[in-house]
Amino acid sequence: MSAELAFNRSVDVDYGVAEEVAPGVRRIVANNPGPYTFLGTNTYLVGSGEIAVIDPGPADADHLAAIAAATRGERISHILITHSHRDHCDGALPLQRRLGGDIVAFGPTGTARGAGAPGLGDTFVDKAFRPDLPVGDGDTVKARGFALDVLHMPGHAPDHLCFALVGKRTMFTGDHVMGWNTTVIAPPEGDMGDFIASLERLMQRHDKVFLPGHGGRIETPQRVVRAYITHRKWREQNILACIDDGVSTIPRIVAKLYGALDANLKEAAALSVLAHLEHLNARGMVSAEGATDKLSGFYVRGSGAAPSS
Fold first, then answer.
1. Residue 135 lies in a domain
2. Is 180 within the bounds of a domain?
3. 6 lies in a domain?
4. How confident is residue 1, by pLDDT bands cut at 50, 70 and 90?
């Protein structure tokens, strides 16, 4: 089983400039680069005359000014949020106060949020975020200049949405599928079972282009999604092999599988391993023993206990 992923990290960025990336779609990249945001958050302007803004990004004055300049003479009718991580949603209220538009998102999920790694903790998630218009799977958001179908794609975050441009075979994928890196799945914010199920839903579609929340256009959507699924299955098999070899705690699994990873990302890797183990546990394939918390116990092959949810 191959786990090769062909990442595209050679993306040129001119911060603050609206660039056409698809017919009727412009992108402005926020100047918030980092280990989880790549070169910055992509804000998309969809339509003409009447505009949808997808992911206004951080509450950055220069970025908001760039959105205002790019839409001068047009009306923003909707501000769509793929998920309530601050690098995607913090600019929503400031943009609304400045230019108007209804804030559209999935809304509260009633599930645990946040994760225990630098950059992924409670401060990364806006737990108080509330949209004006909650939407769910199968809804459509439309105005004179656009129509966007809503797909609920949990996994990276429980409230994650993707938006499909009706009739254009173009999908705005947020952080669900990105071309520059694999998607972080960090419990309790992330759920590996939900993530894989959401990827499998995308395999049933026939999109031509993905426009992600970070990084450049994805020109071969199904190939990338298939590679994502293969990569996760490969990682799962590696984790099971570690357990069979007696490498049965998360820190030791991380050391074996991610030995060359930057030290600043090791905690995120530990949460990714935890997400895989929770998915394996849910299917009765492993169980945790001697754990005082989820990251400190050791894991064994399934003991016959009923699968957990």
1. yes
2. yes
3. no
4. very low
Residue 281 lies in a domain: no
Cβ-based neighbours of 236, under 8 Å, separated by 6 or more:
276, 279, 280
- pLDDT, mean of residues 266-273: 89
Q: Total structural domains in the chain?
A: 1
Cα 222 to Cα 229: distance, rounded to the nearest angstrom: 11
* pLDDT tens, residue by residue, 133-162: 999 999 999 999 899 999 999 999 999 999
pLDDT of residue 68: 98
Q: Which domain holds residue 209?
A: 19-229
Give phi and psi for 173, each to the nearest 5.
-100, 0
Q: Domain holding 111: CATH number?
A: 3.60.15.10
**CA 235/CA 260 separation, integer angstroms:** 16
